Automatic annotation (TrEMBL), chains A, B:
Protein name, UniProt field: tRNA pseudouridine synthase A
Annotated gene: truA
Role played: Formation of pseudouridine at positions 38, 39 and 40 in the anticodon stem and loop of transfer RNAs.
Pfam family, one: PseudoU_synth_1
Family of the protein in this entry: Belongs to the tRNA pseudouridine synthase TruA family.
UniProt GO BP: tRNA pseudouridine synthesis
Originating organism: Cohnella faecalis
CDD domains recorded: PseudoU_synth_EcTruA
Superkingdom: Bacteria
Matching InterPro entries: PsdUridine_synth_cat_dom_sf (IPR020103), PsdUridine_synth_TruA (IPR001406), PsdUridine_synth_TruA_a/b_dom (IPR020097), PsdUridine_synth_TruA_C (IPR020095), TruA/RsuA/RluB/E/F_N (IPR020094)
SUPFAM superfamilies tied to this protein: Pseudouridine synthase
Catalytic residues of the enzyme: 52 (nucleophile)
Self-association and partners: Homodimer.
Amino acid sequence: MRNIAMIVSYDGTNYSGFQSQPGCLTIQGELEKALFVLTGQHIRVNGSGRTDAGVHAKGQVINFRTDCGIPVERFALAINARLPGDIVVQSVYEAPQEFHARHDPKSKTYRYSILCSRFADVFRRKYELHHPTPLDFAAMAKGLEHLIGEHDFSSFASPKSTKSSHVRTIYECRLEVETLLPFEDTDAWRYPGKQRGRIHLYVKGNGFLYNMVRIIAATVILIGEGKLSPSDMARILVAKDRSQAAPTAAPHALSLWALDYGEVFGDKPETPDEA
Amino acid sequence: MRNIAMIVSYDGTNYSGFQSQPGCLTIQGELEKALFVLTGQHIRVNGSGRTDAGVHAKGQVINFRTDCGIPVERFALAINARLPGDIVVQSVYEAPQEFHARHDPKSKTYRYSILCSRFADVFRRKYELHHPTPLDFAAMAKGLEHLIGEHDFSSFASPKSTKSSHVRTIYECRLEVETLLPFEDTDAWRYPGKQRGRIHLYVKGNGFLYNMVRIIAATVILIGEGKLSPSDMARILVAKDRSQAAPTAAPHALSLWALDYGEVFGDKPETPDEA
């Protein structure tokens, strides 16, 4: 049996999340349906992890076993032709037999996007949180630094979390300013030290608890608003108490950005299949 | 009576175009509905021009007359609260009495966006054309130069055009490369002189014929594919024959980008209304 791995991007807007659920539209369900149409086989797909309803992915990784003969360099084009437009397979690999998308990642990166502007951007409204008042980007960046390292993230986990340990290691936790938006003249004095612009919060770690990035995002927004100070992030972290952090931020601004499996695929990307 | 002008952005995906049509969902219809809910008045809106079904706008301009007392600095927030999420008023001006959105623009700019990559970007698929094989960006840019100036654009007008003259002046016609995408090793030799990446075609002129930008976009893609040479653009232009140019490109990659009315509003943007 071959072990096929795929990098999959999807717009999660219209889905009840990654994982198959009876009676729900899911990413996994659509992938398995397309694989059935393509191969005639009932194939079970493993994802690197679930994403919640409304959450997107730029680089979700899945794997599955099959004895179908479709060459790896033709697989992406063939499956994309059978998937809805909001799910796109970006690359396909012949994975080692022992590879399993869920068990093997060295790290996962999530991105949470915020547009801090007077009015929403109609073209990105489904992929970013609109925050109408300015935020202190520098304070937010400072607050995020406290999360780097190995910590018990109980304060940033949904009470629905079923994990026995809440200890995770965060390798990277940073704010990227994509664009700064100008203030109007009459406006700046109201918001000393604050900015408007499009920002992204990247969090890279060895694992994540349920709702963890969305709770971090909501808490760092409170820092940006001046309702919390950067050092409050450290205080909230050591409290190990969910009620100390902010309520969970909206799902539509979150994307599973990238996964790192080290050298497992070698460095052989799929060769292109255009003629 | 006040004369109110607004800059409006919209995602045209779910609309039958800008202009009101009985039984159709239109941008004008939604704006007039929101103005009715807000003011209790049946207000007729003038747009700078129609946009076709599926075409977007970053900076459409509209104006309308009203005796409602809503201050200009509160108007955007008030109307946005009554509009669907895919139509967003970006700014509101108290316009001079003689201002009319359709009659007054000095220039209009359209943008046509193309993602030249193996697979589509799920997050921008509704706003750009996906072109799977590489294109010669330099040849495309060269071809576009032939369109700058005053010309008869009959070759680039839908036969449905009802305009008596097809002479228009194009001030700017250029290709912007937003990002270049890397080629894989095995790939580059197949496409000498061609690139992959996200590109935008900007066309700025004193007026446009029906489907003009979409026909220009489709023709310049043929140049990028090597099926036409840059100088063919000049040949097609002088032919004044629609059948010489390429079939009309898809509407979803086109946006009405900006309008220039000169100094008509002075330089007073709406003051922000956050507290």
